[in-house]
Amino acid sequence: MARSLLFIIVFFFHFFLICPNVPGENNHETPLAEFSDGFLDTRENEDLFDSLIDSAWDMLVSNPDSARLSALEAYVYRTPGDNSQEIRLLNLIGITYFIQSEHSRALEKYLKGLTLALEEGENQRIADIYNNIGIVNLRSGNYMDALENFLEAIEYYKETGDIQNKASTFNNIGLLYSAIENFEKARENFDQAYQVFTEKKDSVRIAACLSNMGSLFLKMEQIDSALIYFEKAIDIGIKTQNNFGLSATYSEVAKVFSFKEDYAMAIEFFQKSNDLSKEINYPYKQCKVNLGLARAYLELGQTDLSLIHAETAMSIADRLSDQVLRQETHEVFAKIYEKKSDFEKAFHHFRKSTELKEVILDQAKLHQIYNIEIQELSQAKEIQRLEIERQELLLSRKNTTIFFITLAFFLVMAGLYLLYHNYRYRQLANHQKDILDLTEKKSRAAVEAEIQERKRIGQELHDGLGQMLSVARLNISVLQQKASLTSERKEELLDAAIQSVDKAFYELRDISHNLAPSVLSEKGFAMALKELFEQVNKTRQMHVHFESYGLNGPIDSLIENTLYRAVQELLNNAIKHAQASDFFLQLVKNDSDITLIVEDNGVGFDMEKILHIPGGGLNNIRSRVENLNGNIFIDTMTSRGTIVTIVIPLKKPKYVKKSYSSAGSR
């Protein structure tokens, strides 16, 4: 595909046009078929076939006749019945005729290749050949036929998903609209192609598209804009070392300077194009450039130099057997000799030019015949498609009964599913109601816990702090009312008042500490627990054992406070109610959760009774833990110690499964 693309890019309008994977000659066209003796095995035949095809591509630009002979020789080594090889040969030979401007013969080969491709259903080949046919029509000025073929190519490229070749066809359509001077439509198609080439980072085609847009602006006589696009194309061509593209763009820049009547600069760029054309052995472009040089020198009055370049152009046109190039060269000769006042030779070349125009016109008529055949082939393909659709419709009607039975089955299944879905919905609604009820109970428990906590704080303030302050006030009142007291008695009352105030201060500090222990924020959770246990151990009423694992990182303050309050409550219960002498606490933290395990050797309790006490300490702990999506487990029994396990997740779980359990034995 890349090789055929490269050459078609070079040939048509000196810009890059698409002509991928093209087929070749059929078995009625070559006298070499008689030499196919079948002595070579299939693998050797395929290797020779590919080698000859590659050789034909290498010679295609410089010597299309030799390329065609190589393609005909490759026909001998084709695999019998391999239509894909046949298509490649037909398209390759068609290109050789296209290069030599024998458009009717090119169309003949393309038509045969298209017929085979349609039979085989090779959409990529079909698209390529439609595109090639469009290029022939565009070169010949048959713009309606060209547009129809380009549009057919685009439809097949859509089916194959070939975005880049489809974009190249839009580029060709842009050239078509440029040729008929519909500049707006031309720019629209160039922009569409350029967008795809840019997305695919296809530098070669980007440069081609820029060059095409430069030529469009040249036709619109917007010279500055044309030069900007040509300069961008040249920059890319130099970076990518794309001499084919540079030779075409230099030639277009030369036309810009010819338009500006700056023939010296025009000659300079024509010469650059000519040098590159020689370097890459691109005779067609050499012929066009020499014609440009001949016209430029003629405008400068240098008829001898103009004649030399015209003769060079004619020798190349003869070598390529290109009638269109010959006709253009004869026109230039006629103008040169007219300038030299050699009217006899001028008339001779004028007559030759006219004769060639008639030959080209005759070819165009034959060309139109092939166009009609191609259109009929497309129509036949459309009729075949419609027949297939008709057969499919009949089959569809035969399957209607099965369809309706299947539909009825699915409707029944859908009805059953809806019934099941409705049942599940009711279950879900009931479940949601249970969740709401549970949430309400939790909220009520949290409120009751808060009320009980406030009652406890109020009682502590009244019973403890209030009494101490009352004693202090009484002592101070005695001092104030009895002036006859002795100094010793006054000293005694004053000391008692101060002691009462100090006790009140310490009591207030303890209450405040219980409400919001500052040690948590100052020293951390583990250290706060250690200090608490040290205070208990100093009383020698109970011995506390504390172990911790993984407490080496920060913990959410709400979790810390909850666990600290739980430890305080459980420790208080063990001292006041359980009459325990040992209190064991283990704290374990990992990436997912933190676990608190508390065990005492006290007398235990009847959990069923304790849990039904509203506002009880264990209920308060449970409310706080469950509000953090945690779980609490209690294992206890009367006349036996208690084990309490609290697990609080450190990350928000996707779902929460709460449990509250008890056991009768350890």
Task: Explain the overall architecture.
α22 links the parallel β1 and β2. By secondary structure, this protein is an alpha/beta fold. It has 24 helices and six strands. The chain is elongated, with a radius of gyration of 50 Å. The chain has a six-stranded mixed sheet, with helices on one face. The two termini are 82 Å apart. The chain is 74% helix and 6% strand. It has four domains: 136 residues, Serine Threonine Protein Phosphatase 5, Tetratricopeptide repeat (Alpha Horseshoe), CATH 1.25.40; 95 residues, Serine Threonine Protein Phosphatase 5, Tetratricopeptide repeat (Alpha Horseshoe); 111 residues, no CATH class; 139 residues, 2-Layer Sandwich (Heat Shock Protein 90).
Describe this structure in a few short sentences.
The protein has 666 residues and is α/β, with parallel strands linked by helices. The chain is built from 24 helices and 6 strands.
Distance separating the two termini = 82 Å
Number of helices: 24
Strand order of the largest sheet: 1-2-3-5-4-6
Largest sheet: 6 strands, mixed
Query: What does the radius of gyration come to?
Result: 50 Å
How would you summarize the topology of this molecule?
Layout lengths: L1 H10 L30 H18 L4 H13 L6 H17 L3 H18 L2 H18 L2 H18 L2 H17 L3 H17 L3 H17 L3 H18 L2 H17 L3 H17 L3 H17 L3 H18 L2 H17 L3 H56 L1 H82 L5 H29 L2 H6 L1 H15 L3 E7 L7 H20 L5 E8 L3 E8 L6 H5 L5 H11 L3 E7 L2 E10 L10 E2 L5
Parallel strand pairs: 1-2, 4-6
Antiparallel strand pairs: 2-3, 3-5, 4-5
Helix pairs in contact: 2-3, 3-4, 4-5, 4-6, 5-6, 5-17, 6-7, 6-8, 7-8, 8-9, 8-10, 9-10, 10-11, 10-12, 11-12, 12-13, 12-14, 13-14, 14-15, 14-16, 15-16, 16-17, 18-19, 18-24, 22-24
